[in-house]
Protein backbone atom coordinates (compact mmCIF):
# COMPACT_ATOMS: atom_id res chain seq x y z
CA UNK A 1 0.00 0.00 0.00
CA UNK A 2 2.99 2.27 0.42
CA UNK A 3 4.66 1.64 -2.98
CA UNK A 4 2.11 3.38 -5.20
CA UNK A 5 2.58 6.84 -3.75
CA UNK A 6 6.42 6.43 -4.00
CA UNK A 7 6.25 5.54 -7.71
CA UNK A 8 3.93 8.35 -8.55
CA UNK A 9 6.18 10.88 -6.80
CA UNK A 10 9.43 9.65 -8.47
CA UNK A 11 8.11 9.75 -12.02
CA UNK A 12 8.38 13.57 -12.52
CA UNK A 13 12.07 13.53 -11.49
CA UNK A 14 12.96 10.79 -13.93
CA UNK A 15 11.27 12.67 -16.72
CA UNK A 16 13.15 15.86 -15.88
CA UNK A 17 16.51 14.05 -15.84
CA UNK A 18 15.78 12.53 -19.23
CA UNK A 19 15.07 15.97 -20.71
CA UNK A 20 18.31 17.38 -19.26
CA UNK A 21 20.30 14.47 -20.71
CA UNK A 22 18.78 15.06 -24.12
CA UNK A 23 19.65 18.79 -24.02
CA UNK A 24 23.23 18.04 -22.95
CA UNK A 25 23.63 15.55 -25.78
CA UNK A 26 22.35 18.07 -28.31
CA UNK A 27 24.69 20.77 -26.93
CA UNK A 28 27.67 18.44 -27.06
CA UNK A 29 26.80 17.47 -30.63
CA UNK A 30 26.62 21.08 -31.87
CA UNK A 31 29.75 22.05 -29.93
CA UNK A 32 31.57 19.23 -31.68
CA UNK A 33 30.37 20.54 -35.03
CA UNK A 34 31.61 24.07 -34.27
CA UNK A 35 34.98 22.75 -33.08
CA UNK A 36 35.36 20.64 -36.21
CA UNK A 37 34.53 23.64 -38.39
CA UNK A 38 37.13 25.83 -36.66
CA UNK A 39 39.81 23.18 -37.11
CA UNK A 40 39.04 22.80 -40.81
CA UNK A 41 39.03 26.58 -41.33
CA UNK A 42 42.38 27.11 -39.56
CA UNK A 43 44.03 24.40 -41.66
CA UNK A 44 42.54 25.83 -44.86
CA UNK A 45 43.73 29.37 -44.08
CA UNK A 46 47.30 28.19 -43.62
CA UNK A 47 47.26 26.68 -47.09
CA UNK A 48 45.44 29.60 -48.70
CA UNK A 49 46.10 32.90 -46.81
CA UNK A 50 44.05 34.93 -49.31
CA UNK A 51 40.77 33.39 -48.06
CA UNK A 52 38.56 35.76 -46.08
CA UNK A 53 35.43 35.20 -44.00
CA UNK A 54 32.21 37.10 -44.30
CA UNK A 55 29.66 35.93 -41.72
CA UNK A 56 29.26 32.17 -42.01
CA UNK A 57 30.39 32.10 -45.60
CA UNK A 58 33.92 31.65 -46.87
CA UNK A 59 34.95 34.05 -49.57
CA UNK A 60 38.25 33.85 -51.45
CA UNK A 61 39.87 37.23 -52.23
CA UNK A 62 40.98 37.69 -55.82
CA UNK A 63 44.72 37.34 -56.43
CA UNK A 64 46.28 40.52 -57.82
CA UNK A 65 48.62 39.84 -60.72
CA UNK A 66 51.18 42.39 -61.77
CA UNK A 67 51.75 42.79 -65.46
CA UNK A 68 55.12 43.12 -67.08
CA UNK A 69 55.71 46.62 -68.46
CA UNK A 70 56.73 45.04 -71.75
CA UNK A 71 53.09 43.95 -72.20
CA UNK A 72 52.42 47.56 -73.23
CA UNK A 73 55.17 47.64 -75.85
CA UNK A 74 52.66 47.04 -78.65
CA UNK A 75 50.72 50.19 -77.71
CA UNK A 76 53.82 52.36 -78.00
CA UNK A 77 54.98 50.76 -81.23
CA UNK A 78 51.62 51.41 -82.91
CA UNK A 79 51.11 54.71 -80.97
CA UNK A 80 47.82 56.14 -82.30
CA UNK A 81 48.69 59.56 -80.80
CA UNK A 82 51.98 60.21 -82.58
CA UNK A 83 55.05 58.69 -84.18
CA UNK A 84 55.83 55.03 -83.36
CA UNK A 85 58.11 54.48 -80.38
CA UNK A 86 59.97 51.55 -78.88
CA UNK A 87 59.86 50.51 -75.25
CA UNK A 88 63.21 49.39 -73.84
CA UNK A 89 63.32 47.88 -70.33
CA UNK A 90 65.57 49.69 -67.87
CA UNK A 91 67.36 46.50 -66.89
CA UNK A 92 68.73 45.93 -70.37
CA UNK A 93 72.20 47.30 -70.93
CA UNK A 94 72.55 48.64 -67.38
CA UNK A 95 74.20 47.06 -64.43
CA UNK A 96 74.63 48.81 -61.11
CA UNK A 97 78.28 49.17 -60.21
CA UNK A 98 79.22 48.25 -56.70
CA UNK A 99 81.89 50.07 -54.80
CA UNK A 100 85.39 48.80 -55.53
CA UNK A 101 88.97 49.99 -55.63
CA UNK A 102 89.23 53.25 -57.63
CA UNK A 103 92.21 51.92 -59.61
CA UNK A 104 90.53 52.82 -62.91
CA UNK A 105 90.12 56.49 -61.98
CA UNK A 106 92.35 59.14 -63.56
CA UNK A 107 92.62 62.45 -61.73
CA UNK A 108 92.98 65.01 -64.50
CA UNK A 109 93.35 68.08 -62.30
CA UNK A 110 92.12 69.95 -59.26
CA UNK A 111 90.93 73.40 -58.26
CA UNK A 112 91.84 73.76 -54.58
CA UNK A 113 90.29 76.38 -52.32
CA UNK A 114 87.43 76.60 -49.82
CA UNK A 115 85.44 73.37 -49.66
CA UNK A 116 82.40 74.84 -51.42
CA UNK A 117 84.63 76.13 -54.24
CA UNK A 118 86.94 73.13 -54.68
CA UNK A 119 86.63 70.80 -57.64
CA UNK A 120 88.35 67.80 -59.19
CA UNK A 121 88.19 66.49 -62.75
CA UNK A 122 88.13 62.71 -63.17
CA UNK A 123 88.07 60.20 -65.99
CA UNK A 124 86.99 56.57 -65.51
CA UNK A 125 89.10 54.18 -67.60
CA UNK A 126 86.53 51.41 -67.13
CA UNK A 127 84.04 53.41 -69.22
CA UNK A 128 84.19 54.09 -72.93
CA UNK A 129 86.21 57.07 -74.15
CA UNK A 130 82.99 58.73 -75.30
CA UNK A 131 82.04 59.16 -71.64
CA UNK A 132 84.84 61.75 -71.39
CA UNK A 133 85.80 63.62 -68.24
CA UNK A 134 83.57 64.94 -65.48
CA UNK A 135 83.90 67.67 -62.86
CA UNK A 136 83.07 66.76 -59.25
CA UNK A 137 82.64 69.16 -56.35
CA UNK A 138 83.71 68.51 -52.77
CA UNK A 139 81.50 65.92 -51.04
CA UNK A 140 80.19 64.39 -54.26
CA UNK A 141 80.17 60.70 -55.18
CA UNK A 142 82.78 60.03 -57.89
CA UNK A 143 81.45 57.42 -60.32
CA UNK A 144 80.15 55.41 -57.29
CA UNK A 145 83.74 54.74 -56.17
CA UNK A 146 83.53 56.96 -53.10
CA UNK A 147 82.93 60.43 -51.69
CA UNK A 148 85.34 63.22 -52.58
CA UNK A 149 86.45 64.05 -49.03
CA UNK A 150 89.57 66.18 -49.67
CA UNK A 151 90.90 68.26 -52.57
CA UNK A 152 94.45 69.55 -52.65
CA UNK A 153 96.83 70.77 -55.32
CA UNK A 154 97.92 67.66 -57.21
CA UNK A 155 95.92 65.06 -55.27
CA UNK A 156 92.57 64.20 -53.73
CA UNK A 157 91.14 61.75 -51.22
CA UNK A 158 88.17 59.45 -51.82
CA UNK A 159 86.33 58.04 -48.81
CA UNK A 160 84.70 54.66 -49.34
CA UNK A 161 83.15 53.47 -46.09
CA UNK A 162 86.00 52.97 -43.61
CA UNK A 163 88.64 53.15 -46.37
CA UNK A 164 90.31 56.30 -47.69
CA UNK A 165 92.14 56.39 -51.04
CA UNK A 166 94.65 59.05 -52.07
CA UNK A 167 94.72 59.70 -55.81
CA UNK A 168 97.41 61.90 -57.41
CA UNK A 169 97.09 63.89 -60.61
CA UNK A 170 98.11 61.84 -63.65
CA UNK A 171 100.70 63.56 -65.86
CA UNK A 172 101.43 60.80 -68.38
CA UNK A 173 99.11 62.08 -71.07
CA UNK A 174 100.45 65.62 -70.67
CA UNK A 175 104.00 64.44 -71.38
CA UNK A 176 102.79 62.55 -74.44
CA UNK A 177 100.96 65.59 -75.74
CA UNK A 178 103.95 67.87 -75.28
CA UNK A 179 106.26 65.42 -77.08
CA UNK A 180 103.88 65.11 -80.01
CA UNK A 181 103.05 68.81 -80.32
CA UNK A 182 106.09 70.99 -79.65
CA UNK A 183 106.05 74.71 -80.18
CA UNK A 184 104.46 77.76 -78.60
CA UNK A 185 100.74 78.13 -77.97
CA UNK A 186 100.57 81.80 -78.99
CA UNK A 187 102.79 84.55 -80.40
CA UNK A 188 102.67 88.17 -79.22
CA UNK A 189 102.06 90.74 -81.98
CA UNK A 190 101.05 93.76 -79.87
CA UNK A 191 100.79 95.04 -76.31
CA UNK A 192 97.63 93.02 -75.64
CA UNK A 193 97.27 91.15 -78.92
CA UNK A 194 98.37 87.62 -79.75
CA UNK A 195 98.06 85.11 -82.58
CA UNK A 196 96.90 81.67 -81.50
CA UNK A 197 97.81 78.42 -83.23
CA UNK A 198 94.50 76.77 -84.11
CA UNK A 199 96.08 73.31 -83.98
CA UNK A 200 97.35 73.87 -80.44
CA UNK A 201 93.91 75.11 -79.36
CA UNK A 202 92.31 71.92 -80.63
CA UNK A 203 94.91 69.81 -78.83
CA UNK A 204 94.33 71.72 -75.58
CA UNK A 205 90.57 71.16 -75.86
CA UNK A 206 91.11 67.44 -76.46
CA UNK A 207 93.44 67.16 -73.46
CA UNK A 208 92.22 69.62 -70.80
CA UNK A 209 94.84 68.33 -68.35
CA UNK A 210 97.17 71.05 -69.64
CA UNK A 211 94.63 73.73 -68.75
CA UNK A 212 94.78 72.64 -65.11
CA UNK A 213 98.50 71.86 -64.80
CA UNK A 214 100.27 74.71 -66.66
CA UNK A 215 99.19 76.94 -63.75
CA UNK A 216 97.35 76.70 -60.48
CA UNK A 217 93.82 78.10 -60.55
CA UNK A 218 92.31 79.32 -57.29
CA UNK A 219 88.72 80.62 -56.93
CA UNK A 220 88.67 84.41 -56.72
CA UNK A 221 86.15 85.54 -54.09
CA UNK A 222 84.53 88.96 -54.22
CA UNK A 223 81.84 89.97 -51.67
CA UNK A 224 81.34 86.33 -50.72
CA UNK A 225 80.79 85.06 -54.26
CA UNK A 226 83.16 83.59 -56.80
CA UNK A 227 84.35 85.88 -59.57
CA UNK A 228 86.67 84.00 -61.89
CA UNK A 229 89.94 82.26 -61.04
CA UNK A 230 93.28 83.63 -59.88
CA UNK A 231 96.40 82.30 -61.61
CA UNK A 232 99.46 81.26 -59.63
CA UNK A 233 102.52 79.11 -60.26
CA UNK A 234 102.31 79.85 -64.00
CA UNK A 235 104.58 77.38 -65.80
CA UNK A 236 107.29 79.03 -67.93
CA UNK A 237 106.73 78.16 -71.59
CA UNK A 238 103.32 76.70 -70.80
CA UNK A 239 99.94 77.61 -72.23
CA UNK A 240 99.20 80.53 -69.88
CA UNK A 241 102.71 81.95 -70.28
CA UNK A 242 102.29 81.85 -74.08
CA UNK A 243 98.97 83.69 -73.72
CA UNK A 244 100.76 86.54 -71.94
CA UNK A 245 99.20 85.78 -68.54
CA UNK A 246 101.06 86.23 -65.26
CA UNK A 247 100.88 85.14 -61.65
CA UNK A 248 98.11 87.04 -59.88
CA UNK A 249 95.99 87.59 -63.01
CA UNK A 250 92.27 86.94 -62.47
CA UNK A 251 90.50 85.25 -65.39
CA UNK A 252 86.97 86.65 -65.63
CA UNK A 253 85.41 85.94 -69.04
CA UNK A 254 86.17 84.31 -72.39
CA UNK A 255 84.15 85.97 -75.18
CA UNK A 256 81.70 87.25 -72.56
CA UNK A 257 81.24 83.81 -71.02
CA UNK A 258 81.87 84.07 -67.28
CA UNK A 259 84.42 81.69 -65.79
CA UNK A 260 82.70 81.06 -62.45
CA UNK A 261 83.36 77.32 -62.04
CA UNK A 262 85.39 74.53 -63.66
CA UNK A 263 82.28 73.54 -65.62
CA UNK A 264 81.91 77.08 -66.93
CA UNK A 265 85.63 77.20 -67.77
CA UNK A 266 85.32 73.99 -69.80
CA UNK A 267 82.27 75.38 -71.59
CA UNK A 268 84.13 78.60 -72.36
CA UNK A 269 87.09 76.67 -73.77
CA UNK A 270 84.80 74.44 -75.82
CA UNK A 271 83.18 77.56 -77.28
CA UNK A 272 86.53 78.47 -78.84
CA UNK A 273 86.14 75.78 -81.50
CA UNK A 274 85.65 77.37 -84.89
CA UNK A 275 86.22 80.97 -83.67
CA UNK A 276 88.76 83.25 -85.34
CA UNK A 277 88.88 85.86 -82.54
CA UNK A 278 88.98 85.42 -78.76
CA UNK A 279 88.66 88.12 -76.09
CA UNK A 280 89.83 87.29 -72.57
CA UNK A 281 88.79 89.66 -69.75
CA UNK A 282 91.23 89.68 -66.84
CA UNK A 283 92.10 91.71 -63.75
CA UNK A 284 95.79 92.58 -63.44
CA UNK A 285 97.13 94.57 -60.49
CA UNK A 286 93.57 95.66 -59.63
CA UNK A 287 92.81 96.96 -63.15
CA UNK A 288 90.48 95.32 -65.65
CA UNK A 289 91.85 94.68 -69.14
CA UNK A 290 91.02 92.65 -72.24
CA UNK A 291 93.49 90.41 -74.05
CA UNK A 292 92.75 89.89 -77.77
CA UNK A 293 93.77 86.74 -79.66
CA UNK A 294 93.56 86.08 -83.39
CA UNK A 295 93.16 82.38 -84.24
CA UNK A 296 95.07 81.22 -87.36
Which architecture name of the largest domain does CATH use? Roll
Number of domains: 3
Helix share, percent = 25-40%
Tally of strands: 16
Could you tell me the strand content as a percent range?
25-35%
CATH class of the largest domain: Mainly Beta
Biggest β-sheet strands, sense, barrel: 8 strands, mixed
How would you characterize the overall build of this protein?
- This protein has 296 residues and is α+β, with helices and mostly antiparallel strands.
- The chain has three domains: 16-83, no CATH class; 102-168; 180-295, PDZ domain (Pdz3 Domain, Roll).
- The chain has seven helices and 16 strands.
- It has helices at 3-47, 73-78, 172-180, 198-206, 209-213, 239-242, 262-270; strands spanning 51-54, 57-60, 105-111, 119-124, 133-137, 147-152, 155-160, 163-168, 186-188, 193-196, 216-222, 225-232, 250-254, 257-258, 277-284, 287-295.
- Strands 9, 10, 11, 12, 13, 14, 15 and 16 form an eight-stranded mixed beta sheet that branches.
- β4 (119-124) and β5 form a beta hairpin.
- The model is unreliable at 51-59, 79-83, 90-97 and 172-182 (pLDDT under 50).
Amino acid sequence: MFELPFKSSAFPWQKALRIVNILLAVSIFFSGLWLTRDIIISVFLKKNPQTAFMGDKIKTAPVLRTKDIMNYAGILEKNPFGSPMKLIPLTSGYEAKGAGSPASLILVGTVAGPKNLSYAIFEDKSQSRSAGQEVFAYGKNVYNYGILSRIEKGWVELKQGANTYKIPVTEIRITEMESKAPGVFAQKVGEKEYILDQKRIQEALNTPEQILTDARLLPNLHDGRQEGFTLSEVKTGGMYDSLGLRNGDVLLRVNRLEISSPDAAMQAMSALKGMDRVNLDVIRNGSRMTMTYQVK
